[in-house]
Amino acid sequence: MFASQWLPVNGSQSVAPSQWLAVSPDPGLAQWSGNLGSMVQAPWQPNRASGQRGLHLPGNGTSRTLHIRVLQSPLAGVSDRIFRALVRRWAPEALLFTEMVNASSLELGHGTHKVAELAQEAGPIGVQLFDHRPTAMADAARRAEAAGAYLIDINMGCPVRKIARKGGGSGLINNPELAARIVETVAAAVQIPVTVKTRLGWCDGSEAISWCRRLEAAGAQLLTLHGRTREQGFKGRADWGAIAAVKRALAIPVIANGDINTSADALACFAATGADGVMVGRGTMGAPWLVGQIAAALAGQPVVATPGAAERLALAAEQLQSLVMARGDHGLLIARKHMGWLCTGFAGAPQLRHDLMRAPTPAEALALLAGAAEGLLQGSTAGQPRRISSSEK
């Protein structure tokens, strides 16, 4: 069904991993000559002939249509441009989001790269803003729109204490008047649609419907609802039943969020909530293919298999190199968590993760990944696969 191919790097044409580092600005990286990624397959491509209708958002003069009903959540420290490029391999038309942008910090000149990078995005990209100051939010929204944002999303669900304590994120749940004023101000400031991501409530979800109706009345054209309260954080189970109740009460599209880690989860969530779409977040950490898998399942298309160990090692090597090229030495520090998430499920994975977290240079980390790949290839050639114990994952 899918033709085997090398993974492309940094948007270039497909090349063998042994050639990836030949163009690296780091001579230490250029010494690496592994053979990772030879089993990587072409990802699923969206098929608009499937009959699945898009979600139309009228905006305030500039309308948008979401052709893929699965969205990638903003993830602080994760969903940077390089991670999003990987997600787009499997879901090129999905709506993805930047990492959260602090409107006040943007005003002071911090985090401007998150907005400046919008021009390099290959597909629809939303900018998620957070703050408690309506004017700062409006100014940030205008800057994001000018830079090419597909839409503006307002974060009213982040449970992090330092954000909520200052009145941003989920802190706005406790101040519905201010929350409504922020939505109204931002919606009036831009022509593109304004959406909101929030939670069921602060301590409980008893006021979820009235809370979400207030956001709708203020001008939100789509609502993403995480099925937990702020107090829960990410503990317990997401309450899909509560999301269903909000969906029935609102006229605008509702996107369900929470506990969606597989395409089967997404289908179950749709059935339970009647939502217009789903948003995946933590489930994509170490799984950039998940958005595409879910999109395929929702569209009735064949779902590409989850990449095997050799493929994931290839992705880890590529992501590391891309991060180093973009961020210098700091790229290795960013890559460590991604390598940790990707390098699981095969013999020797725990030791590899341990060594990768301590590798002092990108070249040494790449050598570790190459060695692990060679070990997998040798084991496969020898025809001696063995059962992986839970301690080896």
User: Sheet with the most strands?
Assistant: 9 strands, parallel
Query: Count the helices. How many?
Result: 16
Q: Which class do the helix and strand fractions yield?
A: alpha/beta
Shape verdict: globular
- How many DSSP E strands? 11
CATH topology name of the largest domain = TIM Barrel
The second-level CATH architecture of the largest domain is Alpha-Beta Barrel
Report the sheet-strand fraction. 5-15%
Q: Which regions contain 5 or more consecutive residues with pLDDT less than 50?
A: 1-51, 381-388
End-to-end CA span: 29 Å
Strand/helix succession: HHEEEHEEHHEHEHHEHEHEHEHHHHH
Rg from C-alpha positions? 21 Å
Averaged pLDDT, please?
86
Q: Number of folding domains?
A: 2
CATH superfamily heading of the largest domain: Aldolase class I
CATH uppermost class of the largest domain? Alpha Beta
Helix coverage percent: 40-55%
Plain-language structure description:
By secondary structure, this protein is an alpha/beta fold. It has two domains: 246 residues, Aldolase class I (TIM Barrel), CATH 3.20.20.70; 85 residues, no CATH class. The chain has 16 helices and eleven strands. Strands 3, 4, 5, 6, 7, 8, 9, 10 and 11 form a nine-stranded parallel sheet that branches. Strands 1-2 form a two-stranded antiparallel sheet. A hairpin with a 6-residue loop joins β1 and β2. The longest helix has 21 residues. It is globular and about 60 Å long.
Supply the key terms.
single chain; about 400 residues; alpha/beta; TIM Barrel; 9-stranded parallel sheet; two-stranded antiparallel ribbon; 16 helices; 11 strands; globular
